[in-house]
Amino acid sequence: MDRQPVIETQRLLIRPLQEEDRSALFEVASDPMVWEQHPVHDRWRREVFEAFFDECLASGGGLAVIRRDKDRIVGHTRLDKYDPEEGGVIEIGWTYLERPCWGKGLNSEMKAALLRHVFANVALVEFRVGDTNYRSRNALEAIGAVRTDRYELGRYDGKRIVHLVYEIARDSFCKGPLSGAD
């Protein structure tokens, strides 16, 4: 399973994250509104972003999202937690895009391309999203992800955080809203 593919869509280039992307990605991440509903709400701060970026590089699944018409990084996503057992499962997450990309269908375009890529190797894709991150929850539901009854508890900045688990199965993807999208 290639967790660092190079994928081109009509408007996007998705490619492996590189150290050289650090400054450009911080420019995207430095907008507090991007993290407003996220459980780690202060990733716009340099020191918090730096630790996050280092972890993304170390994960081996970090992907830079580049808007082809502007030839610059507009966001990040990640393929993680790949498990080949029982048909295979992988997580798509850690996704954020700069605000000018919001509401233009770029997230759906990116997710459709990633789903087509991973469903060649897995039967199920999972997404974890903060319970109060309604923007991301709505985006997941719009692409056909279904909320499960599973969740994960964590802590950040002394507070408990809850991540809800959404999923899309290969069979439902083939019948869903993104099956023919590009």
Automatic annotation (TrEMBL):
Task: Give all residue intervals belonging to the N-acetyltransferase domain.
Answer: 12-171
Q: Which residues form a coiled coil?
A: none
- Record key words, sorted: Transferase
Which PROSITE patterns does the annotation name?
Answer: GNAT
Origin: domain of life = Bacteria
Q: Name one GO molecular function term.
A: acyltransferase activity, transferring groups other than amino-acyl groups
This protein is called GNAT family N-acetyltransferase
Which organism is this entry from?
A: Qipengyuania aquimaris
